[in-house]
Amino acid sequence: MGVVGESVVRVDAASKADGTLRYTDDLPFDGLYGAVVRSEIAYGKIRAITFDPAFDFSDIVIVDYRDIEGRNANVVLTDDQPFLAEARVRHIGEPILLLAHRSKRRLREAAAHITIDYDAQAPVLSMEESLALKQRLYGEDNVFKAIHTLKGSLPEGRGLFSLEKTYTTPHQEQAYLEPQSMLARYNGGRVKIIGSMQCPFFVEAALEGLAGEKIEVEQAPTGGGFGGKEDYPSLIAGYAYLLCKKAGQDVKIVYEREEDIAYTTKRHPAQLHYRSRFDETGKLHALEVDITIDGGAYVTLSPVVLARCVLHAAGFYDCGYIRVDARAVATNTPPNGAFRGFGAPQVIFGIERHMDDIARTLGLSPAVVRERNLPGAGSLNVSGVPIAEHARLRALFDTACRESGFDALYNAPPPHRGVGMALFMHGAGYTGVGESMLASSVSIALEADDSVEIRVGSVEMGQGTLTALPQIVADVLELPVGMVSCRTPNTAEVADSGPTVASRTVMIVGRLLAEAAGQLKRALGDYDSPDAYREAVAHYRQRGGPLQFGASYEQPAGILWDEDLFYGNGYEAYGLGCYIAEVEVDPVDYRVRVVRFDAYNDVGQVVNPMMAEGQVEGGVAQGIGYALFERLVYETGRVRSPRFSDYTLPMAPDLPKISVRFLGLEGPSLGLGELPMDGPAAAVANALGHALGNAFDALPITPETVEEACR
Amino acid sequence: MQITCTINGKVHRFDCAPESRVLDLVREAGMTSVKAGCGEGECGACSLFVNGRLVNACLLLAPQIQDAEVVTLEGLQEETAAIRESFAEHGAVQCGFCTPGFVLRAYDYLSHGGERSEEAIKAALDGNLCRCTGYRKIVEAIVKVKS
């Protein structure tokens, strides 16, 4: 039947397009609305909380940290972040009290009659202030996590050119269209959580700590995530849970856009210092990278984001000496977290800008410099193991250069135009031996009507899980895709197949599902049509075998990882990209338009080409937004641009027709979701550098920056 | 205050504060295709027709729909069938939260004789935000709607 590789129409398209699909805020609801009272200062102690005696609070449900029966800690990697502040606040917007009422208006009035007095202290608002220990916020040195790697030995400096440059990348907002939303259902003393999320089992684990008991968590149809609904939903689920438990009624919390932008997690800002030595042909001999990322007020996922920064910092280039020193630091700003690419877009911007700077220094074409540094059979990556993908990378690079006509455009650009490229990789799945720690499991079940149901924790958030996973199972079982479905992820009913992050759904969960489907197929014996399948199932039922089949993750042989030395296979597999952008600069108002964008990808087998193209086009759009549009303004620790009218996202007329190619289709699926977010910003910045003969080292590149560079 | 209007041909009466947003009223009336995306007219997820004009429900206050004829996607299922089919077939739907707004925008555009060129359609979509698709497949879907 071969349904893998076909552009099957997504199963949820019709219900999404006709408006009948129920997202969290659309679910039937007869209860209380919840709201969060937050810190107005960035750093200090809570002195007193005053409830205006002139206001009648008797019908308002009020929760503070003393209402927590379990632990007041949202445990992600460590337990430093409370659900509700006790004595101290560490960022503007930190939750202090929770309120609930049937009327949103009365809820707003109640909030306005609560005064919180603080002993404010001088906050730490930048990475520099943090490292200078303006205040001690975390440990001895304000460093959440530091990673150092060293590969090879420093070459003899004689006759080599050297270059030292700093690149910076800003916060980025996920801007999923559906704001964070959570519903806590009350049923005879028990609470069930339903909401917009990527990782039901993360939420379940967080609530188990908070409540001291297991809470059932169900994912509702989710209107986009991009990482923003990886770790944050645990917090809002906690708020809904606490209010629901205290009120004894259903409680719904839906953020307004401003609240969502101002207080939920963002992409980590990064300062990237690159120092290189290279010869006159452009061949790299040494690369030293110093990385600092801003974690915000609590640890959350910063150590893992940092690991991803380190593993992607040198790209896949061949270089005999690579040293990376990296740290994630604490500041008094809202915690940063997961965003598509998870650390890679920052450093890919660094290394890919640096490759262009090397080319400029030598007066060579950027394509020539990259070509001279392509890895070969013996080349080692940043963590000291051979780059297994070297042949695929070269094939991708050659095709991209040839088909896009890069050289011709580079050598004779039309007026006000420039062309730029980025060549990059993205490790899919958890870093190091993370996947084996997750120990994901999946199950499939034969249903009464002979169809097959997939029971996994992987969620649909727009990327196509509900369609791609059935395609994989149907392919193994040689059935029409309509005979396989996915159950809504509910922690009480499905296997814990790990979080829906890190481009791992098709690569890891899909592979396990193929294994489970293989077991079912072997149990059923031979059949050559859907009718024969039904007969085989009938015989099988008579024999009385199990109706459910499962598989669990086991680390493939030969994966080696030493976390202390940061040595070994940082990832099981890498997707590859070579992206080419052509930009045009308006000589009057300095506006930059991307006029063409070609995305060449090698992600192994593509399960659904139409959905995969959609993923790449959407990722590129976010990457172009990162490059040219998206700017969050912080002022004394507060987001000053918490609206879509201030935080500008690309609209249809702002984007070119993004052209997507997939190469290297043979072999296993390598992970696709994040790759297209990694390369566009560097490609666009490099193209702009080409157009204007200037360097653009900080994102976003707005008309103001362009004007300044042209002066 | 009392507000009376028709929504999808049915009379609705709201007892509401004058500063109530039309967005919230129509959602309370069960029209959940109208989504709250940004609350300030930037994203188009709450698009609906008021007296034949496509508007953002988040920017309208209750008195603005007094005696008006309000039509949401729920009331235009037949008229938008070909558009919705094209969106599905061409991969223009991802997370789906913006999709009802885009479907109404496309319906408004095409029913006013909008040109089937990519550039013209892109320009027409300037008031609708999609964070998933990069817009290409939405534009293609509109170009290829069967008439």
Overview of the structural elements:
The complex is a heterodimer of chains A (711) and B (147). Helices cover 29% and strands 24% of the residues of chain A. Chain A is α+β, with helices and mostly antiparallel strands. In chain A, a hairpin with a 5-residue loop joins strand 13 and strand 14. In chain A, helix 8 crosses helix 9, helix 8 packs parallel to helix 18 and helix 16 packs across helix 18. Chain A is globular. Chain A starts with 12 loop residues before the first helix and ends with a helix. Chain B has 5 helices and 5 strands. Chain B is elongated. With 147 residues, chain B is an alpha+beta fold. Chain B has a 5-stranded mixed beta sheet with strand order 2-1-5-3-4, with helices on both faces. Chains A and B meet through helix 1 and helix 16 of A and helix 2, helix 3, helix 4 and helix 5 of B.
Topology readout:
The complex is a heterodimer of chains A (711) and B (147).
Chain A: H1 13-17, E1 32-38, E2 44-51, E3 61-63, E4 88-89, E5 95-101, H2 104-112, E6 114-120, H3 127-131, E7 143-151, E8 161-169, E9 181-187, E10 190-195, H4 200-211, E11 216-219, H5 232-247, E12 251-254, H6 257-263, E13 270-278, E14 284-296, H7 302-312, E15 321-330, H8 344-362, H9 366-372, H10 390-404, H11 406-411, E16 417-428, H12 434-438, E17 441-446, E18 452-455, H13 465-477, E19 484-486, H14 505-524, H15 530-543, E20 548-552, E21 561-562, E22 567-568, E23 573-585, E24 592-602, H16 609-628, E25 634-635, E26 638-639, E27 658-662, H17 675-678, H18 680-692, H19 703-710
Parallel strand pairs in A: 1-12, 10-11, 14-15, 18-19, 24-27
Antiparallel strand pairs in A: 1-5, 2-4, 2-6, 3-5, 7-15, 8-13, 9-10, 9-12, 13-14, 16-23, 17-18, 17-20, 21-22, 23-24, 25-26
Helix pairs in contact in A: 4-5, 7-8, 8-9, 8-18, 13-14, 16-18
Chain B: E1 2-7, E2 10-15, H1 22-28, E3 47-50, E4 53-56, E5 69-71, H2 81-89, H3 99-111, H4 118-124, H5 136-143
